[in-house]
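Quick start: read one record
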Amino acid sequence: MSSVLYDTPGPRAKRRNVLLSIVFTVLLALLLWWVWQKMDDKNQLEWNLWEPFTTSEAWTTYLLPGLGDTLKAAAISMLIALPLGAVFGIARMSDHAWVRGVAGTVVEFFRAIPVLLLMLFANEFYVRSTDISSEQRPLYAVVTGLVLYNASVLAEIVRAGILSLPRGQTEAAYAVGLRKGQTMTSVLLPQAVTAMPGHREPAGRHREGHRAGRRDARLHRAAQLAQHAGGQLRQRRPQLHRGRGHLHPA
């Protein structure tokens, strides 16, 4: 039996999961107690340090505007990084070497730099090379850093999803007359989305699908052999009748 996300655990797995849950709860409680003691020893739990968070001024001036800007930057970054990552992922599989080289260099370069450094470099670039106001500059810097890093990561995810597909998908698309661009947009990309990490079927269901596929293949092969044997038997039947007539004339 398999659930939506994982194979249903057996009795031993259930006991092991309960034991691990108890151990984790105890360790978490000990960690929280240690953190509490350390903060109390350094007087970090004094009321005057936490009182500003109970005033409306702190929320309306700093916390809520900061949360709104963070969500805005995340939304803008996703809208830009998703298509940009798909473009770079496809470009890394181009037939043209210079396209693959440029796309690979960009992806590997920005994947290797921490996001915070990308934000700092982007902010410095906007200070020196643009006229963006100081109020809007942090938002531009954060969005730039997030887009460059996440687009590079998404490019590798898209490329891995496409390369994981069976080669027969591409060959079948070419066989019906689709061009390479049509094959990529109509056949490979839609399937690559489901083949990307995080969208795979549960292991039990995946194994059941493999077993069902092998069983169907064996049945199909057996039907072909039976049909072939029947055809040969029908072809040989007139010869057998003629042979019998020759051996036993009427």
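Residues 11-46 form one domain.
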